[in-house]
Design brief:
Helices cover 77% and strands 0% of the residues. It has 293 residues and is an all-alpha fold.
Length: 293
């Protein structure tokens, strides 16, 4: 197989960092997807990634290079996520309205700041341009980027492990969670902040489209196969990893872009789960007992 030849041949040192980073990103995105899907935050990945344009504008007007620029963009994304949390919640904007508000405002800010920079000071000193901060490719991941992906994954998974039960309670039944003393505001800000960190790291390494898919499709697929939260969590992680590895294999075999291949693999798994669930529902009721005509 061409994939095996590539991963064991002379090009292996250039490809393995991307594979290792993608596995880490899939794991943390899958865990977050179990919380993001029931809270109807499917467009959070698109919203935060495009809001990062505001951070790019700030980095441009400050005249910083790509390294410090990425830190500024990351900080801006976290602040944008906190802004979504502040604008949403009870008796406030819905999540999609809050995300849209922050997205358009951030992009407008970024566009104005970039215009001021280009008009008055000339091109930005960012190596590779601002596009390198917003759009990545698995095949372009550098050896130093793989540890970054695993550090972000370890932090995200550590926080989720620490607060998993109250976050699940809040995600699936917010009114009841509040009644039982769960700080719903803290859970909302925690999830949005972790998602922002994940998005800003992931979009730099694997691109906006893939990180958006990984934040939604694993849990959406797992929920077609099981109604038990424990099983959904494990299945989501497995589905994300299978989709990423399968998509990479398809990319290596066909020489197609890696990100779209992984998205197609995740969509194929969703289609299989959908078909499996439809077949099961024809013969079983919700308790797993066969229907009797």
């Amino acid at each position: 197989m061409r994939a095996i030849d590539l991963l064991t041949g002379p090009s292996a040192p250039d490809l393995w960092p991307g594979v290792i980073a993608a596995v880490a990103i899939a794991l943390q995105c899958a865990a977050l997807s179990v919380l993001i899907v029931p809270k109807k935050l499917a467009f959070l990945g698109q919203g935060i990634s495009h809001a990062a344009f505001g951070g790019v504008g700030i980095a441009a007007i400050l005249g910083v290079s790509a390294g410090p620029g990425f830190v500024i963009v990351a900080a801006f994304c976290v602040l944008a996520a906190i802004g979504v949390g502040a604008l949403s919640g009870r008796n406030k904007l819905s999540y999609d309205s809050a995300i849209a508000t922050l997205l358009v405002g951030s992009m407008a800010l970024g566009a104005i700041l970039l215009h001021i920079r280009l008009t008055n000071y000339g091109p930005t000193p960012m190596t590779g341009g601002w596009e390198s901060l917003l759009f990545g490719s698995v095949r372009m991941v550098k050896p130093m980027d793989a540890p970054l992906a695993w550090t972000a994954a370890a932090f995200t998974l550590g926080v989720l492990f620490w607060r998993w039960r109250p976050m699940l309670f809040w995600a699936y039944d917010e009114p009841a969670a509040e009644t039982f003393g769960v700080s719903t505001g803290l859970m909302r800000i925690t999830l949005l902040t972790l998602a922002a960190i994940t998005i800003v790291v992931s979009m730099k390494l694997v691109g906006v489209v893939l990180v958006t898919a990984l934040l939604v499709l694993p849990a959406a697929t797992a929920m077609k196969l099981s109604k038990r939260l424990g099983a959904v969590t494990v299945l989501a992680a497995a589905i994300a990893e299978v989709g990423v590895v399968g998509g990479l294999a398809l990319s290596f075999e066909t020489d197609w872009p890696a990100g779209p291949c992984m998205v197609l693999a995740l969509l194929a798994l969703l289609a299989v789960a959908w078909a499996t669930g439809s077949v099961k529902n024809r013969f079983l009721d919700g308790t797993g007992r066969k229907f009797l005509p």
